[in-house]
Each structure stands twice: as C-alpha cells, then as structure tokens.
Design brief:
Number of strands: 0
Distance between the termini: 227 Å
Organism: Delitschia confertaspora ATCC 74209
Pfam families: Tropomyosin
Keywords: Coiled coil
Structural class: mainly alpha
Low-confidence stretches: none
Number of domains: 1
Protein name: Tropomyosin-like protein
Length: 161
C-alpha cells in the first residue's frame, strides 16, 4: 500500500504540476491570443493606412502629372512670350525707323515749303516784271502805230505837195 500511496502521491504531484502547467499554458495562450488580436488590429490599421497612403500617392501622381503639363504649357507660354517680346522689339525698332523717316520727311517738306515760298516770290516778281514789260510793249506798240500813222500822214502830205 505504501507503494500505491506513493504512486498516488506521485500522480497527485504530477496532476498538480500538469494543472499548474495547464494554467501556465492557458495564461500563455490568453497572452498569445491577446497579442494576436493586437497584431490583427495593427495589421488592419496598417492595411487601412496603406490604402490611404496609396490613395494619396495616386493623388500626388495625378498632381505631378498636372504640374508637368502646366510646366510644359508654362514653358510653351514662356517661349511664346519670348517670341512676342522679340516681335515687340522688332516693331519698336520699325516704329523708331518710321519716326526717323517721318522727321526726315517733315524736314524735307519744311525745306520744300521754304523753297516753294521763295519760288512763289520769284514767280510773283517775274509776273510783275512781265506785266511791266507787257505794259511797256503795249505802250511802245501804240507809239509805233502812232508814229507809223504820222509817218503815213506825213508821206501823204509830202506826196500832195
């Protein structure tokens, strides 16, 4: 009987140890289950974060694409602005050249007006001179006719004598 008692006692000790180990394992299992739940929640959270970040990346990629397009159109606008700037410069130079030409033409016109005034005065003087010569011619022609008539009258009188 002692052997049975010893055996029973050994079995009880073994049962207590097994119960103790079972409790320990239950505690470990509970800790692992809690940890697993936390890890699953963390995975769910990280998955959600990942989805949000992927959406943000997609949004940012679209913005980058739009900004590149804007940059390209900005560069094209810059090129167009440069081209227009060059055209403006050419037009300004042409305008300055036109202004110079107008000033030169105005100066020539003024000089022509001065010369024209001078020649008009000359023409008036020549016309006055012509009028005077015509008057003298008419006077001389009249004197010639009068003298011719006197000569004829004198010649007729001489013939009558």
């Amino acid at each position: 009987m002692d052997q049975i008692k010893n055996r029973l006692q050994a079995l009880r000790i073994e049962a207590d140890e097994s119960a103790s180990k079972a409790e320990e394992y239950k505690t470990k299992l509970h800790a692992l289950e809690t940890e697993t739940t936390q890890k699953e929640q963390e995975i769910t959270s990280l998955t959600h974060k990942n989805q949000v970040l992927e959406a943000q990346v997609e949004k940012l990629e679209m913005q980058v694409k739009e900004l590149k397009e804007l940059s390209d159109s900005g560069a094209a606008a810059g090129n167009q602005a440069e081209s227009l700037q060059r055209k403006i410069q050419v037009l300004e130079e042409e305008a300055e050249e036109s202004d110079r030409t107008i000033r030169e033409l105005n100066e020539k016109l003024r000089q022509t007006d001065v010369k024209s005034g001078h020649y008009e005065r000359k023409v008036q003087a020549l016309e006055q001179s012509r009028d005077q010569w015509e008057a003298k011619y008419e006077e001389m022609a009249k004197k010639y006719n009068d003298t011719k008539q006197e000569l004829e009258t004198f010649a007729v009188e001489l013939n009558n004598i």
